[in-house]
Design brief:
308 residues; Uracil-DNA Glycosylase, subunit E; 6-stranded mixed beta sheet; 12 helices; globular; binds iron/sulfur cluster
């Protein structure tokens, strides 16, 4: 075992690590950790900075007073430390107080926190199960209800760091009741594994829970009908990252009309999750040349998450 002693953390590092720990525990559903109130954090931050500035001024004043003191004269009338009184050195310049680097969640730069409290995993699972039962009985989209074999709610880890968000069930998913199990699903599984996750570690869901006939895109009204369901799923899981697969899910989540080409390559905020938009695996099967760009998108997320 190494007995190397790590250097002590400075103030900024301590604040960063405490914020990251609080963020992680809150996402994992630990309820003893109070959720930070943004107003209180800002007030404390201002007081902390004001105190630091005052302390710097006090130090500077004390330093000036020290240097302004008359030289001590020895019994022979000679200033101590030399034959002649040396000019006092200028007071040392104090560095300006450093601003603590707060995490994006605390300063709200990456979007508002999700509403309500982060639930423990078991409670998330039971709420997801109750929502799945509600979805199974949903009749909001008459055409989809007539065509579906069953609804496809979504599956995976209720405390996932990463959620993969697709468009809608295809024929295989409609038969099995599970998301992304056909050829496109197999490619998605490979993409998830390339990120060093298993399907069980992430959560997979679609924008609409019923198969559109002929694999057409869901209509805006159908997406609007299903929106409360996917929004509630994401709110319960509150992942760090949401990977939107294709334009339908990206535009629905971000309320945008931009293409995947315009949305990809950057993070978008959705509450305090970071959203990336990339190509749908079905598109990648038809256009293998786009796989490189999709992998770059996933790597951007992995780098941000500190996983590569
Ligand atoms: S797509 Fe969604 S809103 Fe429409 S019927 Fe299916 S579950 Fe209900």
């Amino acid at each position: 075992m190494s007995d190397k002693i790590l250097p002590p953390l400075d103030r900024d590092q301590l604040i960063m690590q405490a914020a990251a720990l609080a963020n992680h525990l809150a996402r994992a559903g630990v309820q003893w950790m109070p959720r930070p109130n943004l107003d209180t954090v800002q007030t404390l931050k201002s007081r902390f900075e004001a105190a630091s500035a005052t302390s710097s001024v006090d130090n500077a004043a004390s330093s000036v007073a020290q240097n302004a003191r008359p030289p001590v004269v020895d019994s022979g009338g000679t200033p101590s430390g030399g034959a002649a009184a040396a000019p006092s050195p200028p007071p040392p310049t104090q560095p300006p107080p450093r601003r603590p680097a707060l995490s994006p969640m605390l300063v709200g730069e990456a979007g508002k926190p999700y509403p309500g409290v982060s639930l423990p995993v078991a409670q998330r699972e039971s709420e997801l199960a109750a929502l799945a039962s509600e979805v199974a009985a949903c009749q909001r989209c008459p055409q989809l209800v007539r065509c579906r074999t069953q609804t496809v709610f979504g599956e995976g880890n209720a405390a996932a760091r990463v959620v993969f968000f697709g468009e809608g069930p295809g024929a295989d998913e409609d038969r099995s009741g599970r998301p992304f199990v056909g050829k496109a699903g197999q490619l998605l599984t490979k993409m998830i594994q390339a990120c060093k996750f298993s399907r069980e570690e992430v959560y997979i869901l679609n924008t609409v829970k019923c198969r559109p006939p002929g694999n057409r895109n869901p209509e805006p009204e159908e997406i609007a009908n299903c929106r409360p369901y996917f929004e509630k799923q994401i709110e319960l899981i509150r992942p760090e990252y949401i990977v939107c697969l294709g334009a339908v899910s990206g535009q629905a989540l971000l309320d945008s009309k931009l293409s995947v080409g315009r949305l990809r390559g950057q993070f978008h905020p959705y509450f305090d999750s970071k959203v990336i938009v990339t190509y749908h695996p079905a598109y990648l099967l038809r256009n293998p040349a786009a796989k490189k760009a999709a992998w770059e998108d996933l790597q951007m997320m992995l780098r941000d998450a500190g996983l590569i």
